[in-house]
């Protein structure tokens, strides 16, 4: 039985990891909300952002956090372009399936280009504060993990405020809830859906930079992220942001605690176990409503 | 021009039969005129792809549920066969069928979970299946050999390399023939009709009394079994298994790409796609080696197919042919009144022109003036 302080440390690490999962799952939920699209390329963009942060740090010597100023607007624009130029052109009848394939193909292209440009070598950012850590009630927490969590939390809070407080957020939520009704109220749902998609991709930019701070990255890493993220949104209920956040926290913490007893690889299977259990027992997910059951 | 189109249709049938016989002849004689065993291995690889994507097409083509994780069943078939040969010391081909049966049993709970939900969640489950099996087979090294791989003993130990390839060429060909035959039979059956109803509108199919869930589950298991047979045969032929290649999301996506490229609603669609993509893959491997660029090409090709040709090459080409030769099976025919009158008079010069012309044997109705 591991000591109490070790368990406490795992819980703290689980919360920090869960924060990042929650941010990324929120992005996936946004895509699903506005377009009924499961975006497989989300984690590929995550790795792309991490590579951009690493590359900027290596070539220009800037702090990875500064790359956010470029990557967030860039990813937002790419997301809007993707929605407007690619996804809206698919046939509505087969949109769900075909969009999966389309975003999957985008993920393959990104992975291939990253591998071609930067080779398959594992990369890691070395920062002055990389090895620094804080004592927190007997648990040792790396500073970079705290920064990553802070970024994720700030981005999630920003997203929440944007969705709840702004006029755009209201229009976005209306579009998600009932597209036709939103149109009747004079909302340009196509434009709003495009922005929603861009917003989702911007979360990948933030998440990727946070990931680059304390993780070794390589081109095929995105497969290790997409599985857990997909599991989180299904367990939370497709389309439900609070569901995704709660599932992200719960599963992130479980994974972290299981790592005490099992190897890292086996601990990751918790996501898939949760996924299969959810589908077998409660297919609409923990917080999924009418919407989730149909997709 | 009903006579003309009837003749064309009949000649089309002969043409199709001729093409089928020619295809069989080419496939059967291929090993005897290849210049070197290398070309034969390319042929085997393409046949393997063809069996895999035809197996995938049982689910993807009939029900419209797109599984990106069928590579998992191929990997399970290969590993199942290999482990049954090495650990349980079964004869090779008994192990192959036992492994396929085990995969069929395993596909029931997987399908049970995956098919409870539609569309998006199904794809997620199919991807998760590959990722989870990759984790398990890499971590459980004491049983599966882990990343060091698993060596499958050859089924015919005394055989020369070239003969070995030739035997497996014909084995893959036979498996392909069985898979195509099964697809053809289902396509013409009531069961297949129900599956296609699911593809077109699952709610309506259900309300009309089609047992949609059972149908989906049955065809999922059939598809998984054929995929496992192909994977197991590959394991016996190749003789060396690595979890990274066996449980790769890429192998599953190749199946989807090939089937979509050829045309999921057509019997030979996946086969055609496998020939095109499989040849391209082998060619680029020789010309450019193993660079990450093959991912880019695969991704771009998949993207182009999804965006511009979601029905595949076969419908695109037949549509073009139909436009050129005007044999199109459209519901509205473009016939002018003058043409129609001339036709009727040519048809029945001695009867008045009021005679109905819509009693043709093929049930086609002319536009009445």
Automatic annotation (TrEMBL), chain A:
Major subcellular location class: membrane
InterPro entries per record: ABC_transp_permease, BCAA_transport_permease
GO-annotated biological processes: amino acid transport
One Gene Ontology term, aspect cellular component: plasma membrane
Keywords noted in UniProt: Amino-acid transport, Cell membrane, Membrane, Transmembrane, Transmembrane helix, Transport
Transmembrane segment boundaries: 6-30, 37-56, 68-87, 99-119, 139-163, 192-213, 225-251, 263-281
Membrane topology label: Multi-pass membrane protein
GO molecular function: transmembrane transporter activity
Subcellular location(s) per record: Cell membrane
PANTHER family found in the cross-reference section: AMINO ACID ABC TRANSPORTER PERMEASE PROTEIN, BRANCHED-CHAIN AMINO ACID TRANSPORT SYSTEM PERMEASE PROTEIN LIVH
Family according to the record: Belongs to the binding-protein-dependent transport system permease family. LivHM subfamily.
Name the record gives this protein: Branched-chain amino acid ABC transporter permease
Lineage: Bacteria, Bacillati, Actinomycetota, Actinomycetes, Kitasatosporales
């Amino acid at each position: 039985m591991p000591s109490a302080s070790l368990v406490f440390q795992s819980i703290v690490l689980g919360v920090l990891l869960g924060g990042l999962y929650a941010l990324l799952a929120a992005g996936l939920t946004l895509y699903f909300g506005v377009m009924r699209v499961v975006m497989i390329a989300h984690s590929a963009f995550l790795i792309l952002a991490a590579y951009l942060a690493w590359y900027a740090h290596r070539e220009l010597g800037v702090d990875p956090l500064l790359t956010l100023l470029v990557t967030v607007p860039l990813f937002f624009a790419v997301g809007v372009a993707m929605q407007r130029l690619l996804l809206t052109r698919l046939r509505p009848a087969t949109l769900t399936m075909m969009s999966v394939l389309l975003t999957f193909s985008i993920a393959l292209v990104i992975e291939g280009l990253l591998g071609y440009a930067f080779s398959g070598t594992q990369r890691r950012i070395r920062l002055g504060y990389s090895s620094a850590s804080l004592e927190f009630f007997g648990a040792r927490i790396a500073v970079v993990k705290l920064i990553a969590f802070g970024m994720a939390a700030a981005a999630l809070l920003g997203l929440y405020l944007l969705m709840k407080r702004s006029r755009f957020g209201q229009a976005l939520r209306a579009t998600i809830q009932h597209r036709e009704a939103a149109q009747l109220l004079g909302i340009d749902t196509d434009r709003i859906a495009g922005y929603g998609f861009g917003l989702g991709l911007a979360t990948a930019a933030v998440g990727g930079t946070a990931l680059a701070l304390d993780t070794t990255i390589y081109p095929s890493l995105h497969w290790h992220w997409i599985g857990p993220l997909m599991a989180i949104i299904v367990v939370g209920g497709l389309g439900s942001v609070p569901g995704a956040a709660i599932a992200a926290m719960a599963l992130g913490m479980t994974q972290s605690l299981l790592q005490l007893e099992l190897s890292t690889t086996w601990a990751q299977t918790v996501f898939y176990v949760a996924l299969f259990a959810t589908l077998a027992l409660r297919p609409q997910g923990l917080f999924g409503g009418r919407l989730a059951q149909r997709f | 021009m009903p006579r003309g189109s009837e003749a064309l249709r009949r000649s089309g049938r002969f043409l199709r039969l001729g093409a089928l016989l020619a295809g069989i002849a080419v496939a059967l004689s291929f090993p005897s005129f290849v210049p070197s065993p290398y070309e034969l291995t390319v042929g085997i690889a393409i046949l393997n792809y063809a069996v895999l994507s035809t197996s995938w097409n049982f689910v993807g083509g009939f029900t419209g549920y797109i599984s990106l994780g069928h590579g998992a069943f191929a990997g399970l078939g290969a590993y199942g066969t290999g482990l049954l040969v090495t650990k349980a010391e079964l004869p090779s081909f008994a192990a192959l069928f036992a492994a396929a049966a085990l995969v069929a049993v395993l596909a029931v709970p997987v399908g049970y979970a995956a098919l409870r939900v539609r569309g998006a969640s199904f794809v997620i489950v199919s991807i998760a299946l590959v990722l989870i099996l990759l984790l398990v087979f890499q971590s459980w090294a004491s049983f599966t050999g882990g990343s060091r791989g698993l060596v499958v003993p050859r089924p015919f130990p005394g055989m020369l390399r070239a003969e070995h390839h030739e035997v497996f060429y014909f084995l893959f060909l036979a498996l392909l023939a069985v898979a195509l035959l099964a697809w053809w039979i289902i396509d013409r059956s009531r069961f297949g009709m129900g599956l296609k109803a699911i593809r077109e509108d699952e709610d309506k199919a259900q309300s009309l009394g089609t047992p949609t869930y059972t149908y989906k589950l049955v065809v999922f298991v059939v598809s998984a079994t054929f995929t496992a047979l192909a994977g197991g045969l590959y394991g016996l032929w190749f003789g060396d298994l690595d979890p990274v290649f066996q449980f790769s999301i890429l192998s599953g996506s190749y199946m989807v790409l090939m089937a979509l490229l050829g045309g999921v609603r057509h019997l030979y669609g996946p086969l055609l796609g496998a020939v095109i993509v499989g040849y391209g893959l082998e060619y680029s491997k020789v010309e450019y080696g193993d660079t990450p660029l093959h991912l880019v090409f695969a991704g771009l090709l998949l993207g182009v197919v999804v965006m511009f040709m979601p029905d595949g090459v076969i419908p695109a080409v037949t549509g073009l042919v139909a436009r050129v030769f005007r044999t199109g099976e459209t519901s509205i025919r473009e016939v002018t009144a003058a043409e129609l009158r001339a036709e009727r008079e040519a048809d029945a010069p001695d009867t008045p022109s009021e005679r109905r012309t819509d009693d043709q044997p093929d049930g086609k109705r002319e536009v009445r003036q």
